[in-house]
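Entry type: protein chain
Record version: 2
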Amino acid sequence: MLLSVAVMAQPPSTHAPLLVGNGPPQYPADPRMFISSQEIQQRIAQADAAVASGKMYSGEPLVLQGPYRATMEWRNTAQKSINVHQTDAEIFVILQGSGAMTLGGTLVDPRPAHTFAWEGPTLTSEKVKDAKVYKVTQGDIIMIPPNTPHTVSAVDGKLVLWSMHLPMPNLPSGPLPGITPGVAPTTTER
């Protein structure tokens, strides 16, 4: 199965003047150990208002300690690319809304993506083959191992995710020995 992100993208929503398919810009931030559920709801309301007025939501991380940062990603459309973090695992928790995430498989024609200080080397592509689409909704948790293609491939109105990169300090930088870049490791499903 070959998935093209452009095929999975939804038509523009008539409810929001700005289409948001990626998470907020990631800037340096002050360390923070705790955020209440009330503060998270306030951040979601701020993102709703910003996007409704045609502005991009650009909130700081929800929590931040050393190389670990939990961010809120607000989306009303699918991502335009599929990403692979070569030396980072990533975990998502769906805070609000529903949609679909495409996970695993092999990137088609991958290329290096931007790299930030708080995440390892990343590959990106507009296509992936042999991936699996998972319907996601509030409360679902998604754990993405290093070197695994992933993308938000559909959004049902609005999708708010909690996202956290987990650097794998014992992994070498760049392609991993015995693993083909952009090809998901073999997993066993129950």
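Comment: Residues 6-17 have pLDDT under 50 and may be disordered.
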